[in-house]
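We modelled each protein-ligand pair independently. The example shown here corresponds to the pyridoxal-5'-phosphate entry; the chain sequence is given first, followed by the ligand as SMILES.
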Amino acid sequence: MKSSKECMDLGDKYFLHTYNRFPIVLDHGEGVYLYDAEGKRYLDFAAGIAVFALGYGNRDFDNALKAQIDKLIHTSNLYYNAPAAQAAEVLCKKTGMDRVFFTNSGTEAIEGSIKSALKYAYSKKAASDYEIIAMESSFHGRSMGALSVTGNSHYREPFGPGIGHIRFAKFNDLMSVKELINDKTCAIIMETVQGEGGIHPASEEFLKGVRSICDENDILLILDEIQCGMGRTGHLFAYEAFGIRPDILAVAKALGCGVPVGAFLMTERVAEKSLVPGDHGTTYGGNPLATAAVNEVFREFDERDIVGHVWQLAPYLEEKLDKIAQDLPIVSERRGMGFMQALELKSDAKDIIPALHREGLLVITAGARVLRLVPPLIIEKEHIDEATETLTKILQNY
Ligand SMILES: *Cc1c(COP(=O)(O)O)cnc(C)c1O
């Protein structure tokens, strides 16, 4: 086995330099703890960017994957396979949607969502200048389509005009959406809780208002629940908290708990006028290994009442974080929903993250001044205590 230093040197020599990685080589995990190659233990409040909801070293999950590996990993979408059909049913029933397309990532779920909306509009009147309204400070992925609806010009600028016909409104500002609506508007895309943009939940007034605008104008509401879905907010999907439903839904991250899988879903009303054979495809998407993971994730979510657990324990996390926000001058605000929480700082989080790492706590950022807390959904009170004690210890020095 290579030492941490050897791994880092090798990676630095050969990886394309698109990430400023932290000098940590993670080797294995158990529950909500990760261990580096030298055995140092970290409490994981990052969950591989809101992915690993069910914790590490989960025997049931591992065994479900191993059983599928021994049986069949891949078939292509030219044939049916049982895990995919089962996962399709479960996901439609859980989301209240009617039809699903499995992808390999969140970004691809967004690409499919955009194409579905454009095709729906095109079916009504063949035209290719339909507009999509997206939100400022949103994040939807790095491919050209997903990047084009990402409201961060810093990410977009080097890559040209993108797919075009995208207009940006201000998140949680209904007037700014209304001002952009015209005959060409075919869809509004947003995260129910903005993730990378700094953990900003939609206000009820805004989300319901956008839903009404969409209903009145036959505009499709695309919700990106790639990060905030799958129980993270204390609801299986965050839109449930607002009593609305999207027309098109993108999910990924915790959907496969580490096995790369995403999905976009739509109502039958949209599907009837949207993608048909020949319009879209993927070689790997929804393969038996990925969808076996989805099935096991939902089985465990039900068996262990993961969503109920988040719902019950989130107020405790919020209370602890509110106290930090109140007591420590560096923290200006706590915000979030469920186990998707942020501490907004008055200065850059850059030095703070390594200090937390030294104390054995993995936390990520969401923008320069925001500490993002997205732990595995199975954390218990004692882990919240440990994390908030470490946060207090470090943040009180600033
Ligand atoms: C992570 C993320 C994406 C992109 O998903 P990938 O799996 O990284 O392609 C899109 N939207 C949101 C809200 C995300 O958090």
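The chain has 14 helices and 17 strands.
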